[in-house]
């Protein structure tokens, strides 16, 4: 959960700092695992916290 927060939430909330440091945010995240291990729930919560769009494929 912490790693997902760092990858998704921080670049959105701190875009000015990322730009100053010349860092590019990750373009996407691919989660894998068996059905029912809360992949979708985790990503929906992270997207909501970052006020970002969530697309499930």
From TrEMBL:
Residues 29-56 form the ATPase AAA-type core domain. GO terms for molecular function: ATP binding; ATP hydrolysis activity. It holds the Pfam family AAA. It comes from the Eukaryota. InterPro entries: AAA_ATPase_domain, ATPase_AAA_core, P-loop_NTPase. This is ATPase AAA-type core domain-containing protein. The lineage of its organism: Eukaryota, Viridiplantae, Streptophyta, Embryophyta, Tracheophyta.
